[in-house]
Write a structure and sequence with these properties.
Elements lengths: L10 E5 L28 H13 L4 E5 L9 H8 L7 E6 L4 H11 L3 E5 L5 H8 L4 H14 L5 E6 L8 H10 L3 E6 L15 H7 L4 E2 L11 H6 L4 H12 L3 E2 L9 E4 L6 E5 L12 E4 L4 E3 L6 E4 L1 H5 L4 H13 L18 H4 L2
Parallel strand pairs: 1-2, 1-11, 2-3, 3-4, 4-5, 5-6, 6-10
Antiparallel strand pairs: 7-13, 8-9, 9-10, 11-12, 12-13
Helix pairs in contact: 1-2, 2-3, 3-5
C-alpha cells in the first residue's frame, strides 16, 4: 500500500483495549475516561481477520497497544492468531510493564518479538506523581522479566516534561552505558480525549459517498494536563541531546533493528542506544508508514488527526474480505501529509489511551 504522498504503509498498530491500570497526567484524568462497553470492543477473531487482510495488502509489522494491552485477558491467544499469517514478520507490544513479571514468558512463547516500555522517571516518588498508580519497583521487575524472556530489543519510552522529569535525561542516558536498553525520549504531544455522543455522519457510508473520513465533534473536559500546559512543558530534543553530550561527550548516530521514527545515537562504549522522537520540534511525518486500529474498531490514518473509519460495523454485518480491503485502501488514500501541532493544531477527538499511542 502507498498513500497519496508515496509513503509505503507496512505497519499496523492495534489497540486491544481502551482501559489502563495507570493514570499518567498527560494521558488520562485521575478518575479515568469512560471506556467502551465490552460488546463494542473487537473480538480477537475480528482483530485477527483485519490484521490478516492488512497483511495481504502489505503490512508486515503489528504493534499491540492499549490503554494497557496486558490487562486484556488471554492476549497470547491473539498473538498466536496474528502469527498465523506468513507475511507478519514482527509482533511487538507497548506496555507500562507493570504486569510483565507475570506475563513476559507467556507472551514470548506465543510469538511476541519485543516490547516498548513506557517509563518516565527512575525516581519512585516521582513515578507515583506522574502515573498515579502502580510502583516503580514492579515496572523495573517487568523489564527484567522481558529480558529473561528474550523480548529484544527492549525500548524504554520516556516522555519528558519541563519542570517534571527533564532533569533525569542524563540518568536515563547513563542506563544505556550499563545495560542493553534503548531509551527513546519522546516530546510531549498535546492530545486530549473529548467526544460528543454523536458523529458527524456514518463512516462506513463515507467510502461510497466520497466524503472522506469522519470528523469527531468535541467539547471541553477537565481532569489532566490541558493542551496549553502540555505545549509549555515540551522539551525540544535538541536541548536533551545537548544536555547528555555535555555530560558524556558526543554521541554517534546509529541504527537498531525496528528503529521506527526515532533519530538514534550511541554513547561511546555503551551497551544500549539513545533515541529522540521529536514530533513537535522536528516532525517525522515524511517517514510515517503506519495505520492505527482502535479497540472499538475504528481505522485511523494518523495519530494526530481526528479522522477515522468504522471497520466494526461492516465487519459485523457481513462484509467480504474484498470490501474490508477496500476500506483499508480508502483510509490509506486519506492519510494526511503531516500534522500541524507546531502551528497550534488541537487533537482532541480521542485521548492517547484510546488511540494506542
Amino acid at each position: 500500500m502507498r498513500d497519496s504522498f508515496g509513503r509505503e504503509i507496512g505497519y499496523l498498530r492495534v489497540s486491544v483495549t481502551d482501559r489502563c491500570n495507570f493514570r499518567c497526567v498527560y494521558c488520562m484524568p485521575e478518575e479515568g475516561y469512560p471506556v467502551s462497553p465490552k460488546d463494542e470492543l473487537l473480538t480477537f477473531e475480528e482483530i485477527a481477520r483485519l490484521v490478516h487482510i492488512a497483511a495481504d495488502l502489505g503490512v508486515t509489522k503489528v504493534r499491540l497497544t492499549g490503554g494497557e494491552p496486558l490487562i486484556r485477558r488471554d492476549l497470547p491467544v491473539l498473538i498466536k492468531k496474528i502469527r498465523e499469517h506468513r507475511e507478519i514478520r514482527d509482533v511487538s507490544c507497548s506496555t507500562n510493564a507493570f504486569l510483565l513479571p507475570r506475563f513476559a514468558k507467556t507472551l514470548a512463547d506465543a510469538g511476541l518479538n519485543r516490547v516498548n516500555i513506557s517509563l518516565d522517571t527512575l525516581d519512585a516518588g516521582k513515578f507515583f506523581r506522574i502515573a498515579r498508580r502502580g510502583n516503580l519497583e514492579q515496572v523495573l521487575d517487568g523489564i527484567e522479566a522481558a529480558k529473561r524472556a528474550g523480548l529484544h530489543p527492549i525500548k524504554i519510552n520516556c516522555v519528558l516534561m519541563k519542570g517534571v522529569n527533564d532533569d533525569e535525561a542524563v540518568e536515563f542516558a547513563r542506563w544505556t552505558l550499563r545495560e542493553e536498553v534503548h531509551v527513546r525520549f519522546i516530546e510531549l504531544m498535546p492530545i486530549r480525549w473529548n467526544l460528543d455522543e454523536s458523529l458527524e455522519y456514518d463512516s462506513y457510508q463515507a467510502l461510497h459517498g466520497g466524503r472522506g473520513l469522519i470528523r469527531l465533534r468535541i467539547k471541553e473536559d477537565e481532569g489532566m494536563l490541558d493542551g496549553a500546559q502540555m505545549r509549555r512543558m515540551v522539551v525540544p530534543y535538541t536541548a536533551v541531546k545537548e544536555r547528555i553530550e555535555k555530560e558524556f561527550g558526543t554521541m554517534e548516530p546509529c541504527e537498531i533493528i525496528t528503529n521506527g521514527p526515532a533519530h538514534t545515537y550511541k554513547l561511546m562504549d555503551a551497551a544500549g542506544t539513545i533515541g529522540f522522537i521529536s514530533q513537535i520540534s522536528a516532525d517525522l511525518c515524511a517517514k510515517c508508514n503506519r495505520l492505527r486500529l482502535t479497540a472499538d474498531g475504528q481505522l485511523r490514518p494518523c495519530l494526530m488527526s481526528d479522522g477515522e473509519l468504522d471497520m466494526r460495523t461492516p465487519l459485523r454485518t457481513g462484509a467480504t474480505d474484498k470490501e474490508l480491503s477496500d476500506l483499508f485502501l480508502h483510509v490509506v488514500k486519506h492519510k494526511p501529509e503531516r500534522h500541524y501541532l507546531a502551528e497550534g493544531q488541537k487533537v482532541m477527538g480521542r485521548g492517547m489511551s484510546q488511540l494506542g499511542g
